[in-house]
Structure formats: C-alpha cells, structure tokens
Design brief:
The chain has 145 residues and is an alpha+beta fold. The protein folds into two domains: 73 residues, no CATH class; 61 residues, OB fold (Dihydrolipoamide Acetyltransferase, E2P) (Beta Barrel), CATH 2.40.50.140. Helix content is 42%, strand content 23%. The chain has three helices and five strands. It has a five-stranded mixed β-barrel with strand order 1-2-3-5-4. The termini are far apart.
Length: 145
C-alpha cells in the first residue's frame, strides 16, 4: 500500500502544480504522504482511508492558517499604492480654485492640491511640498524662498 499512497501524493502534487495558489491539492498530497508514513500502524485499508481524510483536513487547516498569517504579516497599516509615492515630491501650482485649493503639476500629471495651513494662500507657479494624500487630493505645504 506504500506505493499506492506515494502515487496518490504524486498525483495531487501534479494537480497542484497545474493549479498554483489553491493549496487544496497540496493538502491532499500531504495527507497522502502522512498516511504513507504511518501505514505500518494502520493495517486495514479502511483505517488508512479514514486517516487520509483526517490528515488531509488537518493539513488543509494548517496551510490555511499559514497563508493567513503570511498575508497578515505582509499587510501594513495603510495600503501602499503609487499614490503614496507622491509624498515628499516638490510640485508647482498651475491653477487656483480657492485660497487653499488648486491644481499642481506632478511628474507631468495634474493633481488637485489642498493647503494644510489654511492661513496661507496659493500663488500660481509657487513651489510646494507634498506631505500627504487624502482621497484624491494631495496635501501640501508651501515652500518659501
């Protein structure tokens, strides 16, 4: 029966390779390998099948927990996207909508900007530093010469 469990395990690994990222077939393959390793203790085939299903279920839960742990470890407090790469860039005001809102050119793209300090006023062609992103607006502080 050892060859049987090895063949079953190889079959599930092959299917897992064809469907990467599911880990379902990997759990079955690990369950078959575990059954193969403990086969000498379970002589009856029905006991081996029961052990296979229990071991596969345990491997599925273990792999699921491992993937969730690794995904949670990768996530940070805020979602990193290209938008956050704007922080720290120097922009030039191109259009004024109100005293504290306008548009600025950033790497050839037009972005809506808002002053963080409400007491200041935007001036066309003035330079500003991007200090944050709020929605689709860039939060800026004016740079004074």
């Amino acid at each position: 029966m050892t060859k049987f469990w090895f063949i079953i395990s190889a079959f599930f690994i092959f299917i897992e390779i064809l469907n990467p990222g599911l880990f379902f077939f990997l759990a079955l393959a690990l369950g078959a390998l575990t059954t193969m390793l403990t086969e000498y203790q379970n002589n009856l085939p029905i006991n081996q099948y029961i052990f296979f299903f229990i071991a596969s279920g345990a491997m599925f839960l273990l792999l699921n927990l491992m993937v969730k742990f690794l995904q949670k470890k990768k996530q940070s407090k805020f979602y990193e996207s290209n938008m956050y790469l704007m922080i720290g860039k120097i922009v030039e005001i191109t259009e004024i909508i109100s005293d504290d809102t306008g548009y600025a050119q950033v790497d050839g793209e037009l972005w809506m900007v808002k002053l963080q300090k409400k007491e200041e006023k935007l001036i066309i062609e003035q330079k500003a530093l991007v200090i944050g992103v709020k929605g689709c607006h860039l939060q800026i502080n004016l740079l004074h010469d």
